[in-house]
Amino acid sequence: MARLTLHSLSTLSDKRGRSMTIMLQMNLFAGPELPNDKGPDVQLDEKHRPDLSLIALAVAPPNARDAAGLGEWLAEQLGKPVHLTLTANRSTMLSYREQGDGLHLRLHEFFAAATPKVLWALAALLASEDLEAVGVVDRFINDQCARLIVEPRPVQPQGRFHDLGEILDEVNTCFFHNECGVRITWGQAGSRRYRRSIQLGSYVSQEKLIRIHPCLDQAWVPRQYVAWIVFHETLHEVMGTRASATGNRRSLHPPEFSALEETFPNYRECKQWENDNLYRLLRFNPRAKPLTPPHPRQSE
Predict the structure, then answer these.
(1) Which of 147, 165, 190 is the C-terminal boundary of a domain?
(2) Residue 294 domain-assigned?
(3) CA distances (Å), 36 to each of 30, 144, 155, 193, 280, in order?
């Protein structure tokens, strides 16, 4: 039986995910819980565990101001090869994955100008995901994202069968008193034909942009269901984020969020339709010829 899991990732994900992103996501997973495909946890001996006291001392790491130097320094701290790529990504600021040839790490280019304290915290985070280090890096990413000048992406709200701009206007008027200033667009489907998960909607706070998966732009997908997905993502803009009970993570789906989401008209019907049609959404093929809705019968 298909299982729906709604989750939004803040700057840093949970420990098992080993991935850090500011992109908000809404994921559907089919079947039993999926195994972690991010690679095994790395057990480091004390020789290769960065000294957390150096975070407070902010001792400057040598030659860590470009990708080559920073990668070499991190490899020395972790005791294994580090394949580092600096990016200008506008949604994912930090991500990493264990592979057979070492740690593959992607960082936003603003890490090249990070303070020594942040770089030592980054090394400690990659080594053990120490909560103190996570907090230092999280605050650094939040501060840098607030300073980024982001050029607005072009949007394409008009689909073959559903006009997202029209749906967003209705949601904004009915539920948010026209106070929500987000933009909306159809996203990209990707090249995979066989999926075990699908990201139906996402909200990028830096751009105030909602993206909806094109699998929902089909004749057989009810407009009401598309509106519910738009409503869910719009709630992220309206409610924002807040610190979790521990203060080390940001909570994107607090109890109030879930309570408000359930006020959407026909919420239970949307959930039931989702359960009944999840397998069809997972099989979406963007290259397939779209099914056109039947023409209305002419009255005699």
Answers:
(1) 147
(2) no
(3) 15, 30, 34, 21, 24
